[in-house]
Every structure is written in C-alpha cells, then in structure tokens.
Design goal:
By secondary structure, this protein is mostly helical. The protein has 2 helices and no strands.
Amino acid sequence: MENGKILSEILVQVFGFLVVFWVLKRFAWKGLLGGIDARRKSIEEAFARLESEQRKVESLEKEVRSRLERIEQEARAKIQEAAAQGAGLARDIQDRARADAQKMVERAQSEIEQDLAKAKISMRNDLVTISSLIAERILREKIDEKEQGRLVDRFLSEVGKS
C-alpha cells in the first residue's frame, strides 16, 4: 500500500502540474512571453540609443578637436603677425633714430662751421687791431726800415705761434 499511496501522490502531483501548466499556458504564457519580448525590445532600443549617442559624442569630439586646431592655428598666425608688426616698429624706430642722429650731426657740423667763421672774423678783427697798434708804434718810434722789418717779423712770428 505504500507503493500505491506513493503512486497516487505522484499521479496527483503530475495531474496538478499539468493543470497548472495548462492554465499558465492558456492565460499567462502569452503575457509572460510578451513581457519578455517587450523587455528584450526595450533593451535593444536602449543599446541602439547608446550606440547612436556614442557616435554623436565621437562626432562632437572630432568637431571640438578640429575647432581647437583651428583656434591654435589662428593664435599662431596672430602671434606671427604681431611679431612681424613688432619687427616693423623696431625698424621704424631705428630708422627714425638714425635720421635724428644724422640731423644732430649735421646741426653740429653747421654750428662748428658757424663758430669757425666767427672765429676767423674775430681773428681778422684782432689782426686789424694789432696791425693798427703796430703801425701806431712804428709811427711813434720813428724807426728805420731795418727796425720796422724786424718788428714786423717778430709780430708775424708771434701771430704764427698763437
């Protein structure tokens, strides 16, 4: 009897399993499979969106890199332009300094020439004064030709020394 009891329990369990299986298949199986399919589709869509977003991010990254390269190139160009302008300004300043120095040299030479002309005029005036003083002495002393020649020679040697 024990075997019969075990057998009846197994049959009840198999029958219960079949009833539960039939009820689940009839009413819940489509819902479970539909839920699983919906979940699988949502996961696939999420992966597709992630891949799409990843491509967008990669595209944006490439765009940002190209913009950065353009900005760096523009910065280099502006730096080179500024350096060229600086060099041009330096040349202009040097040219102006040379021109100013040349003008100063020319002014100094002109002043030297004027001072030299003034000195020559002053020397002539002094020579005239000295000559008149010598002539006055000669006339006062009433000297002879020999003495007059000696005085003139002495005067000329003194003028040559000064």
